[in-house]
Specification:
By secondary structure, this protein is mainly α. It has one domain. It has helices at about 1-35, 35-50, 55-60, 60-80, 90-110, 125-135, 135-150, 165. Helix 1 runs antiparallel to helix 4 and helix 5 packs antiparallel against helix 6 (about 125-135). The longest helix has about 30 residues, at about 1-35. Residues about 155-170 and about 170-180 have low confidence and may be disordered.
Length: about 190
């Protein structure tokens, strides 16, 4: 039983690590792509149809807006990545990612994205529908990283509790120790 709990904790630690730094990779990479003309023009129809962001093109060129968005996305990715070094900044990045993904998910409703050849709703077109739908999972990852970082941001030892630090392979049974009992807690046998 102890060995399976330890294995589960290791899998959870690896999962947490992949969620956090997978999110960092995706947001950072997409943010860096915003500096290209290809990406700037790729997001143009979604931004233009958005009641939340469409007005930006009246103030900024397509490329300038995309560049600013790239800076914001790279900053968000950097803040999330700082979790082991700065647990107080990391929840800010994750919260910003939550807002960002909620905004991009709103494009599903403001940008024409239902495939008419398949009868419309619920058939999503490849762009923007299926392209945007992945943001549901990314939103979940952002909420998860926010919850973990916010929960641990006030702990002095929180930088020592990173998923990287908690993943250690078990090499023998002597490394598995039972949970310490709380004061006043009785044994399972009733002693």
């Amino acid at each position: 039983m102890g060995n399976s709990c330890q294995t589960k904790n290791q899998f959870e630690a690896v999962g947490d690590l992949l969620i956090r730094y997978g999110l960092v990779l995706v947001i950072g990479w997409i943010g860096a792509m915003k500096f290209t003309s290809y990406e700037a023009h790729g997001i143009e129809p979604m931004v233009a149809h958005s009641p939340v962001m469409g007005w930006m093109y009246k103030l900024l060129s397509v490329q300038t807006f995309s560049n600013l968005l790239g800076i914001v996305e790279i900053a968000i990715a950097s803040l999330i990545a700082l979790r082991p070094i700065s647990p107080k900044l990391s929840p800010i990045g994750s919260a910003a990612a939550v807002v960002m993904f909620l905004t991009t998910l709103s494009f599903l409703f403001s940008t024409p994205g239902w495939e008419p050849s398949l009868g419309g709703f619920p058939a999503l077109s490849a762009l923007p529908g299926q392209f945007l739908l992945k943001d549901v999972v990314l939103l979940g990852a952002a909420v998860s990283t926010f919850a973990e970082a916010a929960r641990n941001s006030n702990r002095r030892e929180s930088s020592d509790v990173s998923p990287v630090a908690s993943f250690r392979p078990i090499t023998n049974d002597s490394q598995i120790s039972p949970r310490p009992r709380r004061s006043g807690q009785r044994n399972k046998i009733g002693r």
